[in-house]
Amino acid sequence: GGLAAYLVGGNYKNDLYIADHFVNSGGVHVQSVDIRPEFQFHTETMGTWTIGSTGTYLQSYKYQTLPNQPFYEFAGYSTNGQTIAGTMPQYSFYTTLDWRMHNWQTIVGNTYSSAVTDIGSTPPAVYLATRTPTRVNSYFAWDLQESYTFDQAEAGRLWSLLKGMKVTVGVNNFFNRMPPYAGLSQAAGNNNPNADVAQYSPIGRLLFVTANVKF
Question: Is the distance from CB of 147 to CB of 103 less than 8 angstroms?
Fold first, then answer.
């Protein structure tokens, strides 16, 4: 497929026309389920607890290069082909536990991606017909942050400025978890450091401090 632009000559040489023709294009069939459950509990002496998760179950991702070619299943694989590339875990979730009490708030977050099979640049069915599956491990990362919101009594004379100010100290990827190794599909020769840095963060542990206030 493609997008072509043509300049028309004659008296209309300054007119620009767009011809949008999808020729020799394959297809993509995707089946997935997105979920976002959340549960909240109020207590008299221990504050409010909230647990929630945002996630996707990728049941199927079938890709066809050309109309006369077969569809190949890519869900659960890591690949770096010419027409399709990336890591497609079947399960991906970000889950948080939020505790609030008085002026304090604590949040613990977890990133999870299920394990996949590394197939290099070959379609999965073709690769697995002659080779042993190569596993790319599942990925876990933990985040932690603590916040405090100033009220009128604590702000004192600066109340008009500080009331409602929220100060947060946190760390992302607390255990400094690096992306899982994928030597076939994400080799250094393809300008990737043996890991899919588009799917998994290569930053590692990150400390931060923020302060928010509304006037």
Answer: no
Digit-coded pLDDT (tens) for 187-204? 766 666 888 888 898 899
**Spatial CA neighbour of 16 closest among 3, 26, 6, 30:** 6
Work out the pLDDT band at 5, boundaries 50, 70, 90.
very low
pTM, two decimal places = 0.79
> What SS3 string covers the chain?
CEEEEEECCHHHCCCEEEEEECCCCCEEEEEEEEECCEEEEECCCCCEEEEEEEEEEEEEEEEECCCCCCCEECCCEEEECCCCEEECCCEEEEEEEEEEECCEEEEEEEEEECCEEECCCCCHHHHHHHCCCEEECCEEEEEEEEEEECCHHHHHHHHHHHCCCEEEEEEECCCCCCCCCCCCCCCHHHCCCCCCCCCCCCCCCEEEEEEECCC
Give the model confidence (pLDDT) of 7-50 as tens digits.
444 454 566 666 655 556 678 889 999 999 999 999 989 999 99
Q: From CA 3, how far away is CA 23, in angstroms rounded?
A: 10
d(CA 75, CA 59): 7
Residue 165: name the closest of 152, 175, 174 by CA: 152
* Those residues with Cβ within 8 angstroms of residue 160's Cβ, 6 or more apart along the chain or in another chain: none
